[in-house]
Amino acid sequence: MGFKENLKAELNYAGMRVKELAEQSGVKKQTIDSYLRENNYTPSAENAVGIARALGVSVEYLVMGKDAQKGPTLSSLGHDLRLLIKSLDDMNEKDRRIVIDNALNLVRVLHCGSRKRGV
User: Fold this and answer.
1) Rounded to whole angstroms, what are the CA distances from 19 to 5, 9, 22, 51?
2) Cα gap 62→28, rounded to integer Å
3) What is the 3-state secondary structure (H, E, C) of 48-103?
4) 88 in Cβ contact with 71 (< 8 Å)
5) Is the Cβ–Cβ distance between 28 and 22 less than 8 Å?
6) 12 vs 74: CA distance, rounded Å
7) I want to staple 24 with a disulfide (CB 3.0 to 4.6 A). Which of 16, 42, 46, 54 is the partner?
8) Residue 65's pLDDT is what?
9) Is 86 left (phi over 0), alpha (psi -120 to 50) or beta?
10) Helix axis angle, 18-25 relative to 45-55, nearest 10°?
11) Closest CA to 58 of 99, 117, 6
12) 65, 2 contact by CB (below 8 A)
């Protein structure tokens, strides 16, 4: 996918309107509108950085659809995992620790059960 498609997908995922993105990124609404209309249009580095920061993804992901570093990155994770991570990030430390500990225990139980079943 190109910049236009990645931008549309991230706007949709974030539930953000172009006007909100413009305010948060410092890029004019008309400029973002043109990115969403034009094919093969790559923004300036400054605009790409502002938009990526506002959407919570890397510039490389937004422009190329992938990240340079190896392994999963937040922008490469599915919707449910990104939502879970965002929810955890919004919690206080004590609640976050409780949720993480319980989730890890659940994963261990499920993993152990799948080994016993030969899965």
Assistant:
1) 18, 16, 5, 12
2) 18
3) HHHHHHHHCCCHHHHHHCCCCCCCCCHHHCCHHHHHHHHHHHHCCHHHHHHHHHHH
4) no
5) yes
6) 16
7) 54
8) 75
9) alpha
10) 110
11) 6
12) yes
Write out pLDDT tens, residues 92-106. Answer: 999 989 999 998 899
| pLDDT at residue number 29 | 96
Query: Which run of H or E residues covers position 51?
Result: helix 45-55
**Other Cβ atoms within 10 Å of 21 Cβ, number:** 21
Closest C-alpha to 32, from 13, 11, 53: 11
Give the model's confidence band at 115: pLDDT under 50 very low, under 70 low, under 90 confident, else very high: low
Give the pair of three-digit tokens for residue 97.
Answer: 């620790």
**Minimal CA–CA distance to 1: which of 49, 48, 88, 61?**
61
pLDDT of residue 109: 87
| Distance (Å, whole) CA 37 – CA 27 | 16
Tokens 């620790």 locate to: 97
pTM exceeds cut of 0.70:
no
Tokens 């004019």 sit on residue: 28
Which residue reads 């995992």 in tokens?
81
What pLDDT does 99 receive?
Answer: 92
Q: Which two tokens stand for residue 12?
A: 């949709």
